[in-house]
Amino acid sequence: MSAIELCGITKRWGDTVAVRDVSFKVEQGTFAVLLGPSGCGKSTSLRMIAGLEDISDGQLLIGDVDMTTAQPAERKLSMVFQSYALFPHLDVRENILFGLKIRKIPAAEQEIRLTRVAELVGLSALLERKPAQLSGGQRQRVALARAFIAENPICLMDEPLSNLDAKLRHEMRIEIRALQQRLQTTVVYVTHDQAEAMSMADKVILIREGQIEQEGTPDELYNKPATTFVAAFVGTPPMNLIDPKKMGQIPALTDTSDGSPILGVRPENITLVTEGGLESELLSADYLGADTIITARIGQEELLIRAAGRVNVLKPRPARIRWQKEDVHFFDRNSGKRTDRTKAVDF
Amino acid sequence: MNQRRSRFQIHGWLLLMPAAIFLIAFTYYPTLATLAKSFFSQGNAIKPSRFVGLENYEFLITDEVFWKVVGNNVIYAATTIPISIALALLMAVWVNGRLPMKSLVRMSFFTPTVLPMIAVANIWLFFYSPDIGLIDQITSSFGIASHNWLGDPDTVLGCIIVITIWKEAGFFMIFYLAALQTLSPELEEAARLEGASRWYYFRRVMFPLLMPTTLFVLINAIINSFKLVDQLFILTKGGPDNASSLLLYYIYEVAFSFLDQAYASTLTVVLLLALAIIAIGQFVFLDKKVHYR
Ligand SMILES: Nc1ncnc2c1ncn2[C@@H]1O[C@H](COP(=O)(O)OP(=O)(O)O)[C@@H](O)[C@H]1O
Ligand SMILES: [Mg+2]
After folding, report:
1. Is residue B40 part of a domain?
2. What is the ipTM of this complex?
3. Cα–Cα distance list, B156 to A60, B53, B110, B137, B232 (Å)
4. Which of A10, A15, A16, when mutated, tests ligand 1's pocket best, judged by the most ligand atoms within 8 Å of its CB?
């Protein structure tokens, strides 16, 4: 039994199609991330699961029950909004207990759950404050507490960390993941930040223009990107996608030349060598502390290289680079789809 | 050092002066003059004005018309204020939602407010007039006898109340609408996910968040309820038998028809006192219950 299953879901507003024929499953207790660039239809998909947006076409199952047209409250799920959606006139306690009061949970039970959840998210000392008296991170915690106190099996989150600064975002990532594991909640999490997706997800669903581009574990997306779009979206810096034809006179990189596919190789898989490999020109370097991102040129193609430690490129200079044949990905030149017909060779 | 300080102060006072002059000339001086006048008798060619102490106030307590008018005003305020605010809120919530031809509906609710009062009164005069008026034409088609709505002491105040509500509700709606549009739709969505009914959401979230607007509208409504004169001029002149006369209209009558400025001043002082007490009460008691963002 899957916790959530979308079957051919489509969302239309007049002529614009925000989500087109999307199908995926989220298993019980897993952390699924909807990832994609801004405007690709992530929020719309999430809101359709929540019941805040009508489904134009397709079927939605929650716990194997058809919930395509059910009221939001019937779906037994919680949601954390990007803006947190806290009630500004209610204090933290009332905000967290809002749903329990509607469902007329006995007061004693409310108190027990409140104490437990407040402790879980570290809000015990702030229960009497109004949202305006809290920091961004604390408001975020109130929103999480409100979502988790309902003890719903499913929790939806729409870019919950995008209003926080980088350091806090990193902390909250770890906390949310830990909470999810501890409570065994099924989470569907929306983000446009691939690093967030890679670090938190059991399963990533990468969306592009309302359609699923690839679905799989973070490892699969990283190691076997299905298209050039995935390859370029996942990883920082993204994979180099190069056209061997534009690299000028170089040794053979592939076993055949039929179809002449696009070649993909990640910056972290390229090394600087003293002899052999390919001749290139280093153009500039971006020192990041632990490593340096170098921009290099071969023929007309530019590529990024990630080198450990500090590498100085004060002015363009020649250097030799190489990669292993196992690290090379091939994509069809026209469709952008991954192709495994071509094999890479060592050089 | 000292010189610079006093230069500073002179600057400050100079900057304040234009506003201060207007405030003193048109607010404080008339108020104090009115207060002073209320302790004097009305002078005329034969009998000059003289200090009478509280004599005017003693007369006021025994003045039946005064009590009648106060009673009218209380009824008028107690009905127009809550009904027009409730209607305004209802219309605003309705117009704020998804609605075909939203702007047209909004406009039509707001129209009564932009019409000049004189025009409004004339329209309603047509509605209310016996036999040929709109109301009587409709009721007569059901076989109900014609009625002189504005000529009957039992119905005339009700007629004035209806007009006021019709006019004020649209005006107050605009304030509520503006406030509603600042509420994040995510609040309602969060409440819906928790299973809150529309009424529960209204009661627990929307209405409390609209409290600053309600307070503002309430103060306006109260002030307006003591300020009404224009409809009365056209529709009833306070009659019949003072059945539709309100405090300010009575003050006008005393001052300019009966030419008793001393007694009019006395009435004005009472009105000002009542308004001051209401205003202070509102700010002291209601302010605590209002959540300002
Ligand atoms: N209420 C709406 N009416 C019409 N178009 C909408 C509406 N909401 C979203 N869209 C469109 O649907 C697309 C997907 O939006 P959204 O799901 O919010 O993207 P994101 O992936 O950034 O969350 C966008 O092109 C947006 O313009
Ligand atoms: Mg979004």
Report:
1. no
2. 0.85
3. 61, 37, 25, 18, 10
4. A16
